[in-house]
Design brief:
Oligomer: heterodimer
Radius of gyration of chain B: 21 Å
CATH architecture of chain B: Up-down Bundle
CATH architecture of the largest domain in chain A: 2-Layer Sandwich
Helix content of chain B: over 70%
Largest sheet of chain A: 4 strands, mixed
Order of helices and strands of chain B: HHHHHHHHHHHHHH
CATH class of chain B: Mainly Alpha
Largest sheet of chain B: none
Strand order of the largest sheet of chain A: 8-1-10-9
Number of helices of chain A: 11
Strand content of chain A: 5-15%
Structural class of chain B: mainly alpha
Strand content of chain B: under 5%
Shape of chain A: globular
Order of helices and strands of chain A: HHHEHEHHEHEEHEEHHEHEE
CATH topology of chain B: Formate dehydrogenase/DMSO reductase fold
Number of strands of chain B: 0
Number of strands of chain A: 10
Structural class of chain A: alpha+beta
Number of domains of chain A: 2
Number of domains of chain B: 1
Amino acid sequence: MKSNRREFLKLAAVSAMGIGAARLGFLGDAPAFAESVPTVANFEEGLKAKHWGMAIFTAKMTPELNAKCRKACHTEHNVPDIAGPKEIKWFWGANYEETFPTEHGHYLSEEIEHRQFPLLCNQCEAPMCVKVCPTQATFQRPDGIVMMDFHRCIGCRYCMAGCPFGARSFNFQDPRPFIKSFNPLFPTRMRGVVEKCNFCAERLAIGKLPVCVEAAEGALVFGDLSDEQSDIRKALREHFAIRRKPDAGTSPSVYYIL
Amino acid sequence: MLEKALKGSPRYWGTLIALGLVMALGLGFWLYQLTFGMKITGLNRDVSWGFYIAQFTYLVGVAASAVMLVLPYYFHHYKEFSKMIILGEFLAIAAVVMCLGFIVVDIGQPQRMMNVLLNSTPHSVLFWDMVVLNGYLFLNIIVGWTSLQYFKNDMTPPKWVKILAIVSVIWAFSIHTVTAFLYAGLPGRHYFLTAIMAARFLASAFCSGPAILLLLVLCLRRLTGFDPGQKAINRLAVIITYAMCVNIFFFLLEVFTSFYSNMPGHIAPFKYLFTGIDGHDMMVPFMWTAVVLGLGCLLFLIPTPIRQNNTALTIGLVMLVIASWIDKGLGLLIGGFTPNPFETVTVYSPTVPEIMISLMIFSLGGIVLTVLWKIAIEVRCEVEGGNLSMVPPPAE
């Protein structure tokens, strides 16, 4: 019964998207995307896991590759391009010191010191943002992904204070005029709400890997951390990996292979 | 009793109109913020809470401070406070109104505010802060208003009022404790993450709140002739002095832990506030002003002969209020968010619209306070037959 209802809702949502994309020419790029509107069949192929995680081969992650991933992510999710300290970012890069500020590494190898590390939401196992959110607009799915309901968020920004990783951005203004290329398959946000990386939950649902993983040419490994046979566990078994600020107690699901 | 607020001297109406004009001006800026979003503030991705939330925090302290009158009066039967207690309760009401105002202007989607009730989330401290603040508001309205009404009719307040007053004493501790928990539970914000935060908040509240109350009462005495009694003033001044000493002591405990342990994360906010980091030293003059005024006010407050001189007392209290405001209304939030999670500095300073919107809320609080105090004073005037300073405190 329950699954029937779910199937129906999926069907309804998908048909609505299809009709919308076909008819609403004023959406600009929408007609071009109509072909790629997911169908029920796509949703049946959705990827499932007990605990999604990511391992990053940081040595392979050149600044160019990082920029490519960032562009792919920000295009997929309609992330506005706003300059300055009120910027919005889901995927970006930083040097060793900013990425691991608690490591205080002296005498680092020059290569590591100048390496650019990709930054994104850590999809923590014990996420502080979920704990502090007064409306459950930020919530954790059973597969570990920390997601946001942009329509429930009141914009109190408590999650931004709670996150030890600076992973969250606030829409200080209407973001829509700053979206360079519009993707009608993902919602845009309104001003006054917080947003962050969602591990491409919308892509996992139709059987696709996160867009940054697809763009990363193998430098990003995505998979089920609770499955010993998964690629990500294999990568972590064979390489030395660290997480950002583990002593903040949030247990990040993103691992950096040095 | 509300009718007492409708008749008044030109000075009373002038005050209300002046506050109303400031409020209207601020309202314009708030509409500007509602139209264009919070980009008009100085807030940013790294310093995501600023002036608004800092004022909220400071005013929660002012609201909680009414307990410094209610507690001696109800728990220790210190009757000297009987004339001032209603003023303390009404100041608490005005302060909580301002607190709620600062929350409303701070959130990005104020029209969704009720989501906090619709989706009540007990694991969020913000939910509990909403509960305790609104509870405290109603407690003070009920207790203050009812006891004033009974006083007007020359009757002893019913027992339930006394019970609610006792509840409000415990509740007052809860509002500032829960507000401290908003900050003290956040990993990775070293300036906030300290077990003594709630105690520090209470100490700073119990000096700054009564100091503001006492300054306002001294002002009231000059303007209306209302005299709370020199004994009550002296006693409250002693309470303020003790609380300020404890406040400074608690701050020094933080300094010791941070610097003796040499933990970089704990030292960094102090460095930013008191010396600046990488040339970002905007906060330095403010923080040292707070140090000078905070220690300086003790010179006026600790020696009894100086403290009992009302001019010296006024100077000491003004110094104390400025020092505690810089500590809590500026330093606390900015120090908590700087350096940011990447251990770099993103500078925050409030913008003009942000300050104007804050002035709007302060004026709103001023209007609430003026009206409530007017009623309280008029009632006392009526009961005492026009003589504001002669009647002994009513028997319990």
